[in-house]
C-alpha cells in the first residue's frame, strides 16, 4: 500500500527517561519485594541505548523528560503504535498508566503525525485496552497478541486505524507479552524465542499470514526482543541484548549477514518485564509512497 | 444427504421462488420469463399454478411460449428475445437483447465485445436475486434459469481480482479493474487508510484528467471525483498535492500505479460473507476470557490464496487452499475440512452457519470458483449427476493459468478506449464503510454447466491449458510446486474421498465388455482395491491417509450432509472417482507436459516436479475422475477431447521444449482407459467396417490413420483432424511435435490394429507412430516402474503417459542428452509380464483397439517389434521387448528418461491375443492386466486400450 515499504526504515526515535521512581510503583500483581532494581544502572543502560540510537544508528532522538508521578512512563512503546504517518495513542491496561499518553501525544503532534485516539474522544472505548508491547508490525501486517494487557477490542481499534493492513490476533502464552517473545530482525525476518509458548504463537502467525518470513530462533526469551533499524546510511543495525544477558543466543545474531550488531544491556528494565523495544518508539518521517 | 444436497437445493430454489411468486403473482405480473413479452405475462398472471409447472420444467418449456398448450407448436420456431440491461463498471448502462434461452456466456460475451475486452476471464456478470444478493451468472447455464424474478438487470464486475495486475496484458483490462477497485473503495468494500485514499485518488485524477493544469483546473476540480467513502476537503487537498507531481504520467501508467498500490491492501479481492461459528472455535481464535466462540459473528473472506476468517476487522484465522481438503455445504451450514497440521493426527472440520441456505451455497460456489481459478491448472470436470449427490456445479471457465496463457497470445494493437469520467461516484453512492459489513453482496454463481457446454469448455480449456501452464508456473509460485511435490498427485484428493473406493462398481454399471475389462483391470491391479497401484501410492502419500501431507491442496466440492453422511457420499464418489481418477491423471499428465515444456523454457528447476505439482489440486482430479466414470459416452467425449486437444497443445509445447531442449520430460498419463475403450468401441466398429482405418468414422480426418482416434467423438473430430494433419507432418519429420502426433497416431494404430500391415507401415515411417503403438502397450500394462523415478514416475504411471513419453523421449533424445534409460529393470518386468500374458493366451494387446464385440483380437508381433525398434531409434532411452506364445504376443516397451534430476519410467505393453472365437478374450485381457500389475506393483496402470477385431482375424496371420 501506500504505506507499505520494507520494515526497518526509521528516522526518529522517541524515548522517555527513567524516573527516580523507577521500579517503585510497579505495584499491583508484582511482588515488589522480590525485584530489586538498580536505578542508576537502569539509567546508565538507558543512556547506552539512546546513545546507540543516536550515534551509532544515526537517528533523530526525541527524549521526553521523566515524570516521577508516572513510574512506568519509560515504557513508552506501550502507549503508541505508529505506522507511516499515523500514530495510534493506546489505552493501557493499567489505569494509572493512562496519563502517560499525554506527553507522547504532544510529541506525535509536533512530529505532524496523524494522531488517532483509542479511548475517549472517539466515543467510548468499550473497554478496549491495547499496549504497544503486544503489537508486532512486520511492515506488511500487524499481529496483536491477546494478552493480559491487550484485548480484542483494543485490537479492533488498531485494525480500524490501520486499514491498509491485515491485523491478526494471536494468542500469547504464559502471561508474557507478544514483544517479549518476538521482534523484527530485518525486513522479512522475525526473531523468535524458541520456547514452547512462543512456538505456539509463531505457528499461529504462520497460519495467519499471507507472506513469508524468515524466522531466526533464539534459545533465550530475553534475546528475542531486538531493535532492527535500517539507518539513514542504509546499513542494517540490530540492537540486541549482550552476551552477558543471553549467552546462548548471541551466536544466532551472527548469522545475520552484513549487520552491524549493537549489544545493548537492558537487565534492569527486563527485571520489570520490559525489554529493549519497550524503551523507544520508532518513526519514519521520510515516508514515501511506494 | 436426504434433503440438502446441492441438487436438492437447486431444486428447492425454484420452488421457493415459485411460492414467492405465487404470492406476488398478482402484484407482479411480470415474472422473469414473461416479462419482456406481453402475451406470456398475461398468461402468467392468469394461472399462477402454471407458472409453477413451467418452472419445474423450465428446460423443456422455456423456449416455447408460456402457454403450455401452444408450446409444442410454437416451441420450435418462436424465439423469445429478452432485453438485458447491464450496468458497466463506469456506471453506464448497456442494453442488449439476447434470446431468452441463451446461456450466460452469450450475454457475457456481448458485454465483453462491447467493452472491447479480451482478458475477460477475470470478470463476470452479477444479478441481484430477490433477496438483493448478488449472484454470479453462470456462463454455462441458461439465463432464464438464473433469473427468476424481476427485470433482467445485471452488472458487470470483476470476479477474480488478479493478485498481480502487472501481469495483465492489456491496459484496457487494467482500466476496468481500476474502475472496479474505485467502486470498491468508494463503497467501503475495500477499506484503506487516509494516506491510501489520497494516493489512489491522486492516480485516479491523473488517469482521468491528465496532468495538473493550474489554468484549467480550479481549486475544486477534484471535488467532483470520489475517492473515499467519506471524502473530506483535507483529502482532496492532499490529492491535489500529489497530482501536481505526476506531470507527464500517462493514464495507463497512473492506473498501473493505482493497481500496484491497491493490490497490497489486505482486503484486495476478498469476497466477504457473513457467518457464525458453529461449535467451538478453533484454538487459534484466541477468544477473550470467558467468551464462548459458539455463535460468534464472523466474516468469511474468499480470496485468491484461500479462506480468511474475520471477526470484526480482525483476522482470526486463515486457511490457505492447500490447507483445505474439502469444502461443502448443507442447509445453512458451510464446512471446510482442514488438513491435519504438523502435530495433529486427524483432519478437522470447521462449520459455519450462514444466514440461509442460499447464502451457504453462494459461498460454496465462490470458494469452488476461486479455488479452481487460482489454484488449478484447468477446471475440473463437473460430476455426473446421477452418481453424485451433491451439486454438480463446477467452475467451467478458464483458470488464471489458462487465461494468462491465452492472453499472452493477444496480438492486437493496444485498443484505443475512452476513459469515462468517474463522476458517477456521487455522494449518494458513498457508503461508510465497514467493508466487512458489505459482504452480503458477495456474488455466487449459479448453476451447473450443461454437459455439452462443459465439453466445449473443456475443449477450450484443454487447448489453453497446455499453454497456460506456463502462466501458472510463473504465476503460481513456488508454493504450488511445493505442494505438488509433496502431494505429488492430484489424485490424492480423489483417494481421500475414495479411500475405500471401488472403481469396479462403476465399471460394472457401464456394463460394456470393455467396462468389464476395465473393471477387472482395476480390480486386479488394486489387489482388492479398485485403484491402480499408482493410485494406491498416491493414497498412501495423500493427506488423508498419511497425516504428513501438509501441502497438497485438495478441495472437494461435494455437498456433504453431516459428517456421517459424508462418508457414504464419499464412497459413492469414490467409486466414480476410481475410474475417473485415471482419466484425471491423464489430464494432469498432459498439463504437466505442457507446463514442463514451458517451464523448461522459462524455467525453474524441477520441471518434473512441477508437473506433478501443478496437478495437485484435488478438486480437479476429482472432477475428472467422476466424469470418466459416470457417463460413458459423455465422458468419453470429454476425455477424448481432452486427450486430443492436449496433444495439440502439447505439440506446440513439445516443439518448444524440443527447441529448448527441455521438452524431454513431457509425459502424458492417460488413465482414461475407459474413455479409450469407449471411444474405441464406437470408433472401432466403424473402422472395422470401413476396412482399414476408422478415418471414415471420423468425418474429417478420414484419410489419415489418426482418424481412428477421432472415433472417440465427433466433437473431437475437428480437433482430430488437426491432429491427423499433424501426424502426417510428424511422420515426415522427426520433431518433438511429432510426439504429439504420435499420441494421435497411437489411437490410430489402435483402430488400425485390424489392418496390421498399415500399422507396420506407420511404424516404419515414423518414430512417432511408434509412440502410438507404445501407447497401446502402455495401456495394457497399466503399471510402470515409476517408483524408481519417484515424482515423475508417479505422475506418469499410466500407459497414456507412455505415448507422450515416447514422443518426448524421441524428442529428448536429440534435444536432451541427459536422458538416461533404466531399461534393464523395465525389461525384466516386461519379460515377466510377457510370460504371464503368454500363459493367459493373450496374444498382444494393442492399446488403441478394444472391442468386446469382435471376438478376435489381431495383432502383429512383427509390427510391435518394429515399433519398438523404431522407437528406440528415435528415443534414446526406449526399449522394446517382444515375446510370443502360440496365441499371445507381448511387446513391452520401456522408456526411461532422466531430465533435470527427474526420471520417468514408462512401460507400455502391447499384448496381442490371437485365437479362435472360443477364447475368452476379456478374461485373457483381464489376466494380462492383472499380471502386469503384479509384475509392477510400484507402478500404476494408466491406460488400457483394447481393440478387438473379428473379421480381420483371418487376415491377420501374422501371429
From TrEMBL, chain A:
Keywords: Hydrolase
PANTHER family documented for this protein: DIMETHYLARGININE DIMETHYLAMINOHYDROLASE (PTHR12737), N(G),N(G)-DIMETHYLARGININE DIMETHYLAMINOHYDROLASE 2 (PTHR12737:SF16)
Family statement drawn from the similarity comment of this UniProt entry: Belongs to the DDAH family.
Name the UniProt record assigns to this protein: DDAH family member 2, ADMA-independent
GO MF, one annotated term: hydrolase activity
Protein source organism: Nothobranchius furzeri
Source domain of life: Eukaryota
InterPro entries the UniProt entry points to: DDAH-like
From TrEMBL, chain B:
Compositional bias per record (Basic and acidic residues), positions renumbered to this chain: 9-20, 467-485, 690-702
Region of interest (Disordered), ranges: 1-72, 467-508, 521-579, 672-702
Keywords: Actin-binding, Cytoplasm, Cytoskeleton, Phosphoprotein
Bias (Acidic residues): 673-689
InterPro entries linked to this entry: Band_4.1_C, Band_41_domain, Ez/rad/moesin-like, FA, FERM/acyl-CoA-bd_prot_sf, FERM_2, FERM_central, FERM_CS
Domain of life the protein comes from: Eukaryota
A GO term from the CC aspect: plasma membrane
GO annotation terms (biological process): actomyosin structure organization; cortical actin cytoskeleton organization
Any matching Pfam family: FERM_C
Localisation: Cytoplasm, Cytoskeleton
Residues covered by the FERM domain: 82-378
Keyword Cell membrane carried by entry: no
Ranges of biased composition (kind: Low complexity): 63-72
SMART domains: B41, FA, FERM_C
Main location: cytoplasm
GO molecular function: actin binding; structural molecule activity
Protein name: Transcript variant X21
Organism in which the protein naturally occurs: Nothobranchius furzeri (Turquoise killifish)
Underlying gene: epb41l3
Amino acid at each position: 500500500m501506500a504505506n507499505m515499504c520494507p520494515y526497518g526504515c526509521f528516522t526518529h526515535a522517541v524515548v522517555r527517561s527513567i524516573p527516580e521512581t523507577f521500579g517503585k510503583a510497579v505495584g499491583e500483581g508484582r511482588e515488589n519485594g522480590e525485584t530489586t532494581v538498580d536505578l542508576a544502572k537502569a539509567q546508565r543502560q538507558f543512556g547506552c541505548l539512546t546513545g546507540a540510537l543516536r550515534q551509532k544508528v544515526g537517528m533523530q532522538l526525541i527524549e521526553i523528560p521523566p515524570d516521577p508521578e508516572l513510574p512506568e512512563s519509560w515504557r513508552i512503546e506501550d502507549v503508541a503504535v505508529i505506522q507511516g504517518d499515523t500514530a495510534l495513542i493506546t489505552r493501557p491496561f493499567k489505569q494509572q498508566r493512562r496519563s502517560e499518553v499525554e506527553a507522547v501525544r504532544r510529541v506525535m503532534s509536533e512530529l505532524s503525525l496523524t494522531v488517532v485516539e483509542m479511548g475517549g474522544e472517539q466515543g467510548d472505548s468499550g473497554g478496549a485496552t491495547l499496549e504497544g508491547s503486544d503489537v508486532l508490525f512486520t511492515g506488511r501486517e500487524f499481529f496483536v497478541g491477546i494478552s493480559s494487557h491487550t484485548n480484542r477490542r483494543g485490537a479492533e481499534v488498531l485494525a480500524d486505524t490501520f486499514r491498509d493492513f491485515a491485523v491478526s490476533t494471536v494468542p500469547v502464552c504464559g502471561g508474557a507479552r507478544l514483544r517479549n517473545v518476538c521482534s523484527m530482525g530485518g525486513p522479512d525476518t522475525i526473531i523468535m524465542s524458541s520456547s514452547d509458548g512462543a512456538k505456539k504463537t509463531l505457528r499461529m502467525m504462520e497460519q495467519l499470514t499471507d507472506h513469508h518470513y524468515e524466522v531466526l530462533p533464539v534459545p533465550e526469551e530475553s534475546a528475542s526482543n531486538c531493535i532492527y533499524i535500517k539507518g539513514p546510511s542504509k546499513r542494517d543495525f540490530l540492537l540486541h541484548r549482550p552476551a552477558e544477558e543471553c549467552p546462548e543466543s548471541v551466536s544466532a545474531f551472527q548469522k545475520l549477514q552484513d549487520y552491524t550488531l549493537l549489544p545493548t544491556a537492558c537487565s534492569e528494565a527486563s527485571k520489570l518485564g520490559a525489554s529493549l523495544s519497550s524503551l523507544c518508539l520508532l518513526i519514519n518521517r521520510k515516508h514515501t509512497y511506494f | 444427504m436426504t434433503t440438502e444436497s446441492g441438487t436438492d437445493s437447486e431444486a428447492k430454489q425454484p420452488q421457493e421462488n415459485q411460492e414467492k411468486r405465487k404470492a406476488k403473482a398478482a402484484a407482479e405480473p411480470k415474472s422473469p420469463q414473461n416479462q419482456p413479452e406481453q402475451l406470456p405475462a398475461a398468461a402468467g398472471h392468469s394461472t399462477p399454478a402454471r407458472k409453477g409447472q413451467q418452472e419445474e420444467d423450465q428446460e423443456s418449456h422455456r423456449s416455447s411460449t408460456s402457454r403450455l398448450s401452444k408450446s409444442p407448436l410454437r416451441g420450435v420456431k418462436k424465439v423469445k428475445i429478452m432485453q438485458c440491461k447491464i450496468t458497466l463498471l463506469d456506471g453506464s448502462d448497456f442494453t442488449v437483447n439476447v434470446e431468452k434461452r441463451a446461456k450466460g456466456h452469450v450475454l457475457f460475451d456481448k458485454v465483453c465485445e462491447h467493452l472491447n475486452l479480451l482478458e475477460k476471464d477475470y470478470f463476470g456478470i452479477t444479478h441481484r436475486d430477490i433477496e438483493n444478493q448478488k449472484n454470479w451468472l453462470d456462463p454455462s447455464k441458461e439465463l432464464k434459469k438464473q433469473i427468476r424474478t424481476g427485470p433482467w438487470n445485471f452488472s458487470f464486475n470483476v470476479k477474480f481480482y488478479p493478485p498481480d495486475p502487472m501481469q495483465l496484458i492489456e491496459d484496457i483490462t487494467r482500466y476496468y479493474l481500476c474502475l472496479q477497485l474505485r467502486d470498491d473503495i468508494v463503497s467501503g468494500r475495500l477499506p484503506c487508510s487516509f494516506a491510501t485514499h489520497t494516493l489512489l485518488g491522486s492516480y485516479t485524477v491523473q488517469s482521468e484528467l491528465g496532468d495538473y493544469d493550474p489554468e484549467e483546473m480550479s481549486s475544486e476540480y477534484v471535488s467532483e471525483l470520489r475517492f473515499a467513502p467519506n471524502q473530506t476537503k483535507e483529502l482532496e487537498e492532499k490529492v491535489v498535492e500529489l497530482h501536481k507531481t505526476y506531470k507527464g504520467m500517462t493514464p495507463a501508467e497512473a492506473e498501473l500505479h493505482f493497481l500496484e498500490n491497491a493490490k497490497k491492501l489486505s482486503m484486495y479481492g476478498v469476497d466477504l460473507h457473513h457467518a457464525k461459528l458453529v461449535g467451538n472455535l478453533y484454538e487459534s481464535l484466541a477468544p477473550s476470557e470467558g467468551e464462548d466462540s459458539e455463535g460468534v459473528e464472523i466474516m468469511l473472506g474468499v480470496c485468491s490464496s484461500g479462506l480468511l476468517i474475520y471477526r470484526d476487522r480482525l483476522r482470526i484465522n486463515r486457511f490457505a487452499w492447500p490447507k483445505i481438503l474439502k469444502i461443502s455445504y448443507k442447509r445453512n451450514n458451510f464446512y471446510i475440512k482442514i488438513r491435519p497440521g504438523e502435530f495433529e493426527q486427524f483432519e478437522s472440520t470447521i462449520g459455519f452457519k450462514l444466514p440461509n441456505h442460499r447464502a451457504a451455497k453462494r459461498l460454496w460456489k465462490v470458494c469452488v470458483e476461486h479455488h479452481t481459478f487460482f489454484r488449478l491448472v484447468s477446471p475440473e470436470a463437473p460430476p455426473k449427476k446421477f452418481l453424485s449427490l451433491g451439486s454438480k456445479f463446477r467452475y467451467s471457465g478458464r483458470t488464471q493459468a489458462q487465461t494468462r496463457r491465452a492472453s499472452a497470445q493477444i496480438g492486437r494493437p493496444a485498443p484505443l478506449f475512452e476513459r469515462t469520467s468517474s463522476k458517477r461516484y456521487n455522494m449518494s453512492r458513498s457508503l461508510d464503510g465497514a467493508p466487512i459489513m458489505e459482504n452480503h453482496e458477495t456474488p455466487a454463481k449459479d448453476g451447473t454447466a450443461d454437459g455439452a457446454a462443459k465439453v466445449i469448455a473443456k475443449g477450450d480449456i484443454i487447448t489453453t491449458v497446455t499453454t497456460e501452464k506456463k502462466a501458472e508456473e510463473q504465476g503460481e509460485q513456488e508454493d504450488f510446486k511445493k505442494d505438488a511435490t509433496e502431494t505429488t498427485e492430484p489424485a490424492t484428493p480423489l483417494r481421500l474421498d475414495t479411500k475405500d473406493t471401488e472403481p469396479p462398481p462403476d465399471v460394472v454399471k457401464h456394463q460394456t465388455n470393455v467396462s468389464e475389462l476395465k473393471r477387472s483391470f482395476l480390480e486386479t491391479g488394486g489387489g482388492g482395491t479398485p485403484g491402480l497401484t499408482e493410485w494406491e501410492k498416491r493414497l498412501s502419500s495423500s493427506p488423508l491417509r498419511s497425516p504428513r501431507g501438509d501441502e497438497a491442496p485438495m478441495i472437494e466440492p461435494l455437498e456433504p450432509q453431516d459428517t456421517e453422511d459424508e462418508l457414504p457420499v464419499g464412497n459413492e464418489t469414490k467409486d466414480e472417482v476410481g475410474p475417473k481418477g485415471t482419466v484425471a491423471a491423464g489430464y494432469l499428465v498432459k498439463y504437466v507436459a505442457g507446463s514442463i515444456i514451458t517451464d523448461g523454457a522459462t524455467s525453474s528447476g524441477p520441471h518434473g516436479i512441477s508437473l506433478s505439482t501443478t496437478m495437485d489440486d484435488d478438486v480437479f482430479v476429482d472432477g475428472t475422475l467422476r466424469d470418466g466414470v459416470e457417463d460413458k459416452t459423455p465422458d468419453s467425449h470429454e476425455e477424448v477431447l481432452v486427450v486430443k486437444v492436449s496433444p495439440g497443445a502439447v505439440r506446440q509445447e513439445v516443439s518448444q521444449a524440443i527447441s529448448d531442449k527441455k521438452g524431454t520430460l513431457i509425459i502424458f498419463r492417460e488413465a482414461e482407459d475407459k474413455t479409450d475403450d469407449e471411444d474405441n468401441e464406437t470408433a472401432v466398429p466403424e473402422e472395422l467396417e470401413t476396412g482399414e482405418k476408422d478415418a471414415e468414422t471420423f468425418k474429417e480426418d478420414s484419410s489419415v490413420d489418426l482418424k481412428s482416434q477421432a472415433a472417440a467423438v465427433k466433437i473431437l473430430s475437428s480437433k482430430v483432424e488437426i491432429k491427423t494433419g499433424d501426424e502426417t507432418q510428424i511422420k515426415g519429420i522427426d520433431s518433438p511435435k511429432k510426439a504429439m502426433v504420435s499420441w494421435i497416431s497411437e489411437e490410430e494404430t489402435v483402430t488400425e490394429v485390424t489392418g496390421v500391415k498399415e500399422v507396420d507401415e506407420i511404424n516404419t515411417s515414423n518414430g512417432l507412430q511408434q509412440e502410438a503403438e507404445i501407447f497401446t502397450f502402455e495401456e495394457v500394462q497399466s503399471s510402470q516402474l515409476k517408483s524408481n523415478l519417484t515424482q515423475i514416475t508417479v505422475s506418469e504411471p499410466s500407459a497414456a503417459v507412455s505415448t507422450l513419453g515416447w514422443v518426448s523421449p524421441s524428442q529428448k533424445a536429440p534435444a536432451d542428452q541427459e536422458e538416461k534409460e533404466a531399461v534393464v529393470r523395465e525389461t525384466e518386468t516386461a519379460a515377466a509380464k510377457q510370460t504371464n500374458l503368454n500363459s493367459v493366451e493373450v496374444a498382444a494387446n494393442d492399446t488403441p483397439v478394444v472391442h468386446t464385440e469382435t471376438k478376435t483380437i489381431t495383432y502383429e508381433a512383427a509390427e510391435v517389434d518394429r515399433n519398438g525398434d523404431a522407437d528406440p531409434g528415435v528415443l534414446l532411452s526406449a526399449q522394446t521387448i517382444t515375446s510370443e506364445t502360440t496365441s499371445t504376443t507381448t511387446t513391452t516397451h520401456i522408456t526411461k528418461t532422466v531430465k533435470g534430476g527427474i526420471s520417468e519410467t514408462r512401460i507400455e505393453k502391447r499384448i496381442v491375443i490371437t485365437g479362435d472365437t472360443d477364447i475368452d478374450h476379456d478374461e485373457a485381457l483381464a489376466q494380462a492386466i492383472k499380471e502386469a500389475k503384479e509384475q509392477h506393483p510400484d507402478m500404476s496402470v494408466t491406460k488400457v486400450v483394447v481393440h478387438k477385431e473379428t473379421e480381420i482375424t483371418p487376415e491377420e496371420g501374422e501371429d
